Amino acid sequence: MSARTVPAPAVRTSRRLALAILCAGQLMVILDGTIVNVALPAVQESLGFSSSALGWVVNAYLIPFGGLLLLSGRFGDLFGRKRVFVTGLVVFTGASLLCGLAQSATALLVARFVQGVGGAVTSSVTLAMIVTMFTEPGERARAIGVYSFVQSAGGTLGLLLGGVLTRAAGWHWIFFVNVPIGVVAAVLAQRMLVAERGTGRGKGTDALGAVLITFSLMPAVYAIVAAADHGFGSARTLGSGLAALVLLAAFVVRQARAENPLLPPRMFRYRAVSGALATHALMISGMFGFQFLAVLYMQKVLGLDEVQTGAGVVPVSLLIGIMSLFLAPRLLGRFGARAVLWAALALIGAGLGMLGRIPVDGTYLADVFPATVPLGIGFGLAMPALAGLAMSGATPQDSGLASGMFNTVQQVGASLGLAVLSALAASRTGTLLHDGASRDEALTGGYRLAFRVGAVFVLGALVIAVTVLRTPRRTTRDASADGPAPSRAAEADAGTP
């Protein structure tokens, strides 16, 4: 029975089930980025990791994940997004099982790498499938709100769930828990999601471009990761960064000459897309350090334990959920994505600025909790607005690529921001210790500097959002491609070439 003959309530129910399946797959991927962090000491003791090698339990996942998002998104456009999504779920679930069964450090690292591949393939097309499934502006805004909540709150849930599972059942279960969820999600996805016909190879798949972009993003992510451990001036960081730049330059040249480029240059002609990606990169770079650095401040300076620290970041996730699920769709429909984004970025900058004044003898309720309010509200509003803007200029044939670009920017921006802010905090702490400050004074001084720099990143994002995401005219072609006519506020946000 076609969608035109099925009653509207049945269509809505089918779409909601499909959205739940997509978000379940995305939640697994997001959770796995943080759930392992609290289990690292147990993993080290069990498998005999050295202190220097332990970080690779995280890095072995992050490098393929960040490197393959863009390529996987394009594959979704070429060969069908449902096929790519289900394939990613199968790979991710199988790798999760291997991670839980690992009896050696090498086995775990190999399985983590494969898990990162599956995570990239799954995540790369999720947003594109949501956007193409929900064409009515109000429904689309609500669906993107759900997706944004999963993206934003998944990391915090991972920290809490990782601690609980590790204590109650052992570190193996942080991976085993993915298996039943992944199997159910893959089966339901195969049955419930509508199969889309990809554009196919056409004049030929840009195999060289695929190789260049993959092998440029992977050393780029590695350079960012290495910077956190070895410094930005180390040979590893500089060598990896140089290799990434050379390969990226070769990729750009290839895309300008290829008949059927992997990343068509037209993608950057849309003001909304380019501006949203740049804004997203700076916002994530500034915001992502909050979770990591605030946790360190609460533990090392305020003396809170793991459970108290996890509870301390819950208000941010709750506010993100309330904003993205309930208020953001209404505000986006009434005021438009640009206006909502401006206010959201101002709130995030204010929250980080408040953390930039944390004292040595502070308390959670007086010095940390007040900042969680503007951070949670701002991020819960910013993510749906940015996701909608980033997808607004993409044609149906390019939506998978746009989704992959959005997620790539998020992953690279988060890694780069965390590396920069962590390095600044460590450098400032070392300087203060050298000058005779106490341990707590030095640590707090380092965290304050990092939060202030993070606020500057977010203010830079606000400047781009105000100057680049201006109000262009909406063309007839754009209106026909995007489905039903949106509200006046939404019309102002549609990007044209």
Automatic annotation (TrEMBL):
Domain Major facilitator superfamily (MFS) profile residues, every copy: 18-472
Keywords: Antibiotic resistance, Cell membrane, Membrane, Transmembrane, Transmembrane helix, Transport
Keyword Transmembrane helix: yes
Region (Disordered): 474-497
Localization of this protein: Cell membrane
Keyword Repeat: no
Membrane topology reported for the UniProt record: Multi-pass membrane protein
TM helices/strands, residue ranges: 17-40, 52-72, 84-103, 109-132, 144-165, 171-195, 207-228, 234-253, 273-298, 310-328, 340-360, 372-391, 412-429, 449-469
InterPro entries referenced in this protein's UniProt entry, alphabetically: MFS, MFS_dom, MFS_trans_sf
Record-linked PANTHER family: BLR6921 PROTEIN, MAJOR FACILITATOR SUPERFAMILY MULTIDRUG TRANSPORTER MFSC
Protein known as: MFS transporter
Species name: Streptomyces achromogenes
